[in-house]
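Input:
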Amino acid sequence: MITLTHFLLVSACIFCIGLYAVLAKRNAIMILVGIELMINAAILNFVAFSRYDKTNYGGQIFALFAIVLAAAAVAVGLAIILNVYRQFKTINPQNIHELKD
Amino acid sequence: MEQFLFYAFAAMAILSALLLVSIRNTARALFLLFIVLFAMAGLYLFALADFVAITQILVYVGGVLILLIFAFMLSNKELLADLQSTSQRFMSLPNWQSMSLSLAFLAVLVYSFIAWTKEAPEWMARAQADGSILSPTDDNIQTLGLKFMTQYILPFEIISVFLMMALIGAAHLSRREGSR
Amino acid sequence: MLPFFGFLMQAVLGKKSISGNIGLATIILSVCVSFFAVFLPVWNGAPLTERMHWFTVGGKPFYVGVMLNNLTVLMQLIVGIIALPVHIYSRAYMRNDPGIHRYWMFLSFFCFAMLGLTISTSLLQLYVFWELVGFASYLLIGFWFTKESAVQANKKAFIINRIGDIGFLIGIALVYTHCGTVDLGELFGPQGVFLPAVNADGSWLTLAGLAFFLGAMAKSAQFPLHVWLPDAMEGPTSVSSLIHAATMVAAGVFLLCTIFPLFNETVLLTIAIIGCITALSAAIFALGQYDIKKILAFSTISQLGFMMVGVGIGSWDTAMFHLATHAFFKCLLFLAAGAVIHEMAHFKATHQLDIDPQDLRNMGGLRRYLPTTFVCMTIASLALAGFPLTTGYLSKDSIVVQAFEWGFHLGGIYLLIPTTLAAVSLLTAFYIGRLLFKTFFGKFKFAEKLQKGELHDAPIAMTGPMIFLAACCLFPACSFHPFDYHQSWLLGEFHVKTAFAAVAEMHSAVPLVLTLGALAAWGVGWRWYVAKRYPLSKNNRWVRFATRQGYFNEFYQLLFVKGTEQLSRGVYAFDHYVVDGLTRTFSAATRRLSVAAHWFDRHMVDGLVNLIAGTTYYVGHLVRHVQNGQLQSYLGFALTVVVLGILYLIIK
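Output:
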């Protein structure tokens, strides 16, 4: 019997893995990948809860929207990475520290 | 049977994700992402969200992943060289602070999920009592289409405009400045 | 007052007054005034007192003024009459002296002070003049101040006088405390406050009496404060004759007679004993001296001892009597000695001999060359020795007779004093005979060097006064009866009641014994000195003892001078080691303390501050990494906080 809890646990694992990727990777593209993983985990969460919502189908609708948004985010993110590379000649976020005081 | 499949898909997703964040080689990592996304789509099916699963495969795998791979493959030689010269080893050592933070988050989430689902929220219980939960024999696609055009028309339109904006913006951002 | 003006005028005129006429004029006028205007009216009459308000201390007024009674006018007259011949004599004696204007100045000042002393109306005023007299004596003793010995002598005189003055002052303070007044008239007059004060509480009486006697002791050169008088002979001889023979030294006796009612039995006995000791010791010392003036100085001390005994036994009238007569013949002795010394100095200068003109051993046989001087000196010597037909006979024998009566009255050991006095009289005769014989008889020591007419008698300015004084030494001056002193008009006016009865045998026995003794002494002296049959060897121990004045000066030197030096050295050492040592220890301790404080400050206080700064720096160094521009670390920190927040919510 697949209960809600299973889905939630899997979602939690994926989310944390994605979080790790965002925090620890030295490659900007890998950070994007991490963000994607996190969004995917959230979508899984939505979908898991949508089983109990027959009247509104809210979970599934929002899952679809989230997928679209993720795609848009990836596109823009890549464009930004390209520009950052042009500027700093590197995509290692640890070398891009002009933001500090 | 169903459970076994579920566990298989779940394991595949998690393992691929773990491998994904361990590998140094970015190209191979992207292919692992491909596997993760497929596994996730399978999991959606188990949650009786077939349209979302298909959309996931179409958009994510067929769009985002292809975009990533193309962007990665078709970028400058220097970029590639830079990316590939990060390390000689296959696996990268985990960063301890990030690892501990992730594990902390995991613990928190797991604990909260388990503690929360011990007593199901009342709307879920009511829905179950009403019998208004999804069943495998429901017609999802029709209902979803209907919902899009009636209840959720506004977000639908906004999303499309937004998507257009994002694409134009990305295209503009990545345009090589001719007048520079 | 007149001599004071003379002093002032001479001080102003300075070198112009070398002739001394002003001083002379003032003294003549003084004498006339004192005799005619003062002496005659007051003698035997009622006492006169004139007072003027001087100052007030805390509600108590003090007066200055003039008091004239028998005692004071007699003293005043004596001072005037002695001063006059001395002034005339000084004109010739001090001629050609470079500091002669100073001499007249000081002489007038002294006369002023002495006259003021005699007519003082209160103890305070008397003390002021007492001090002035001492000061004048200091100036005059050290007249030839270029001589080292003169300077030492006048210092010694002044210091010893000072000691006496302390006694005087203590006495005044005691009297004032207990009687409430220092005015002589109020104290001792017919309505005097003295006796009631004594009857009220007489415990202080002995102390006051002794204190006053201390003052008189220093001034009148009693044992043991007599050491200044022989050294005071460094001054000019005329000064010695006036001051140290007749007037200043008599001031002490005058004081005692003035405050006679003050003394009780104990004090009187002390006075008598000390006077006796003085007389004896001075006579012994005089026996061994070789300097003319020193012999005369010791003779003065001895006679003052006589006078003190007179006061001590209660008959101060005889003491005053002796004072008056002694003034005349002692002054004459000094003047004659001055004439001799003058001639000897001339002789020395002419022949360029290295001799002391005052030394007896250089003289001899001067009778032929200075006849007038010889005659005057003989008369004076006879008076001193106490031969009949002289005033000295009357006064000295009066004292000795009274002493014997007193001795018989008290009996026993008290007879020692009169006996001693008698012995001293014999010694007196002996030493003055010695002086006479060695100077005027025999052969002149430097006869072979002598030229004709070189040694001659003194000029008339010097011999005139001497003759006048010689006349005063003979008996008509004081009494119309040559042998009985009770009939003396001088003595009779002091109505003094003595505690003892007169013993008639004494009146005839004592003078007889003394006269015979004096003759015998002169006989022995003749044999020894003129006939040159001297039994004792030259370096006899007793003779040396007498010559060195009983080693008294050495004793004083050791005791006081060396003692003071040791004390000062000790105090200096104490100051140097203890006081300075203490200071140095404190400063060293403070320096150590400051070093410790500096260490503490540097390591503890600064260390604390540095610690805080260091900690802040370290913490900042750590926290700096929050803002390092790393995107992922920013994210990491934010998520950490989120996790912690959620954990908190869960746990709550």
